[in-house]
Amino acid sequence: MASVCIGASTILSSFTQQKGKSMTRKNELSPKNIENAYLQITELLVKRCGLNLSFLVSAHAPARPQDYQPTDLLNSLQAAELLGLSVKTLANWCVSGQHDLPYRQIGGAIRYQYADLQSFANNNKLDSTYKTNGLR
User: Are residues 28 and 76 in the same domain?
Assistant: First the structure.
């Protein structure tokens, strides 16, 4: 990382030169000044060095299924993503009692246990799209 096309000190001095003013000791650490400096430095890194910010997305990505423990309680969005359904579909199932998908209501929040979601998915697994209803 030391050989990034422009060193951090060069970027910072470029930032202060572009602004045409130096920060006074009194206000240099204000949240607004720090935010502006961060945004300017990031913009310079992207424009001059070709920095790709896609690595930031993975820091906020939802947990992958293998990260869940069987006893973990998932919210509706997590459960819907896991099952490949919409949140609205899960809400409709809760209200109608359609499909035997267990859930918990804690206060006003609906939660699904990860083990229950796995079991539900396994119990609804079909070997074929053709249903014989016992006939051949």
Answer: no
Q: Which amino acid is at 43?
A: E
Domain count, the chain: 2
Residues 12 and 52 in one domain: yes
Six token digits for residue 112: 């699904």
End-to-end CA distance of the chain: 66
Helices assigned H by DSSP within the chain: 8-19, 31-49, 55-59, 76-83, 87-96, 114-123
Residue 106 has pLDDT above 70, yes or no: yes
| Residue 61 backbone phi and psi in degrees, to 5 | -70, 145
Other CB atoms within 10 Å distance of the CB of residue 36: 14
The residues with which 113 forms a beta bridge, in sequence order, are 73
Do 22 and 50 have their domain in common? yes
Hey, what are 53's tokens? 């910010």
Q: Is residue 89 part of a domain?
A: yes
Do 52 and 73 belong together in one domain? no
Render pLDDT for 13-70 as a digit per residue (tens, 0 to 9). 655 555 555 545 555 667 777 777 777 887 777 777 777 766 555 555 555 666 889 9
Distance CA 128, CA 122 (A): 14
